[in-house]
Amino acid sequence: MLIGYARVSTNDQDTALQLDALQAAGCERIYEEKGSGATRERPELDRCLQALRAGDTLIVWRLDRLGRSLKDLVAIVADLQTAAVGFRSITETIDTTTAGGRLVFHLFGALAEFERSMIQERTKAGLTAARARGRHGGRKPKLDAKTTRKAAAMLADPNITKAEVCAHFGVTRPTLNAALAKLPPVGDQ
């Protein structure tokens, strides 16, 4: 069975062009969705993928209608192949039911893996260079040492609760506790 999936990013857009192309390709059933491809919440895509059976072929008008990133696209098509489901993209003329189409898609997959590796290498090199300059990653603490000492002084008053101190400084109890734990003992300041 040929099953189509059409998606537009906003309610202002129209799927008519995609629907015409999918019908011309012979799709017997078409799932249509309006919503960004960047979001993981795509109920019609989920229904479409669940409806596919071994021997079926999923057809899309363009690759970007199925997934925003190459990584997501490769993952979806790999899942389809595992389930013995073919995949076709009309615009890019990719058809994983043919040897040539599988080759092209495997090249896409290899490029996606290469891209991920390059990003990882650049990230590691950037972190190493930052450390060499004395910079450390992570967020700045919500409570610096001076503010934490003020919080500790407030807590020394038996009439002030930890909840009140947290509210005053706009932090959670675990954040306050962690900051207090890092304070040096009173005699060491």
Name the descriptors.
5 strands, alpha/beta, five-stranded mixed β-sheet, 189 residues
Q: How are the strands of the largest sheet arranged?
A: 2-1-3-4-5
Number of helices: 8
Structural class: alpha/beta
Cα gyration radius (Å)? 27 Å
Weakly predicted, low-confidence segments: none
Q: What is the molecular shape?
A: elongated
Note the quaternary state here: single chain
What is the mean pLDDT?
A: 86
Helix content: 40-55%
Strand percentage, roughly?
Answer: 5-15%
Order of helices and strands: EHEHEHHEEHHHH
Q: Major sheet: size, sense and barrel closure?
A: 5 strands, mixed
Distance between the termini: 75 Å
Could you tell me the number of beta strands? 5
Q: What's this, in brief?
A:
By secondary structure, the protein is α/β, with parallel strands linked by helices. It has helices at 16-24, 43-51, 63-66, 70-82, 99-132, 145-155, 162-169, 173-182; strands at 2-8, 29-34, 57-60, 86-89, 94-95.
Draw up the topology in text.
Elements (H helix, E strand, L loop, with lengths): L1 E7 L7 H9 L4 E6 L8 H9 L5 E4 L2 H4 L3 H13 L3 E4 L4 E2 L3 H34 L12 H11 L6 H8 L3 H10 L7
Parallel strand pairs: 1-2, 1-3, 3-4
Antiparallel strand pairs: 4-5
Helix pairs in contact: 6-7, 6-8
Walkthrough of the structure:
- By secondary structure, the chain is α/β, with parallel strands linked by helices.
- It has eight helices and five strands, in the order βαβαβααββαααα.
- The chain has helices at 16-24, 43-51, 63-66, 70-82, 99-132, 145-155, 162-169, 173-182; strands spanning 2-8, 29-34, 57-60, 86-89, 94-95.
- β1 (2-8), α1 and β2 form a beta-alpha-beta unit.
- The chain starts with a strand and ends in a 7-residue tail after the last helix.
- The mean pLDDT is 86.
